[in-house]
Amino acid sequence: MHSKKLQVEDTVSRHSEAASALHQQQEQQHEQAQQHQQQQQLQQKYMHFKFLQQQLEQIAQQVQLMRQQYSELDAAKEAVDEIGKSALNKEILAPIAEGLFMKVRLQDNTKVILNVGANASVEKNISDVRNILENQKQEMTVRMIEGEAVLEQLQQEVMKIYKEIEPHLQSG
After folding, report:
1. Are 116 and 42 in contact (CB under 8 A)?
2. Domains of the chain: residue spans and CATH
3. Which residues contact 42 (CB under 8 A, 6 or more apart)?
4. Are 114 and 121 in contact (CB under 8 A)?
5. Do residues 106 and 86 touch, judged by C-beta distance below 8 A?
6. Nearest CA to 148 among 53, 75, 49, 66?
């Protein structure tokens, strides 16, 4: 009877060890699955981070282009104002191409030729052109403000994601 009791205890002990080993193996598998899932989430965040960075760069370029266009509109408005104030028959430099000018005499200081697109031009008086340029500057200002707001929003999102993934980037 004592021998049977030892056999039973031995069997129970082996089953208990096997159950413990099985439980430990299941915990390891569960932990590995969680690590795999965390790694996938980290990869997804990193890909989203890279995508937002590209968007940020593109929008920054667009905003910079708008600033340049605004400066060009401002310079054009100043030039139109100067022509309106200039005396008739005054010698001025007329642009022919980039960096290429021709000396001409101002024959009319009340009208300019305005390119309206599609290789079409119209004659407009100075005050109309001044108003057109001012309206374009105002529209450009609104677009720049909107672009800068989107830029700021994207920068905040990029920084938020970066703070989440930064520890993993340095350790991995």
Report:
1. no
2. 2-171 (1.10.287.370)
3. 165, 168
4. yes
5. yes
6. 66
> Are 112 and 80 spatial neighbours (Cβ–Cβ below 8 Å)?
yes
CB of 71 within 8 A of CB of 166?
no
Give the β-pairing of 100-105 and 91-97: antiparallel
57: amino acid identity, one letter: E
CB 103 within 8 A of CB 90: no
pLDDT of res. 13: 74
Strand ranges in the chain using DSSP code E only, listed in sequence order: 91-97, 100-105, 111-117, 120-125
SS3 string, 114-149, reads EEEECCEEEEEEHHHHHHHHHHHHHHHHHHHHHHHH
52-108 per-position pLDDT tens digit: 999 999 999 999 999 999 999 999 999 999 999 999 999 999 889 989 999 999 999
pTM of this prediction exceeds 0.85: no
User: Tokens 């022919």 appear where?
Assistant: 96
- Listed in sequence order, the residues at least 6 apart from 43 whose beta carbon sits closer than 8 Å to its beta carbon are none
CB atoms within 10 A of CB 133: 21
State the Cα–Cα distance between residues 19 and 43, nearest whole angstrom: 36
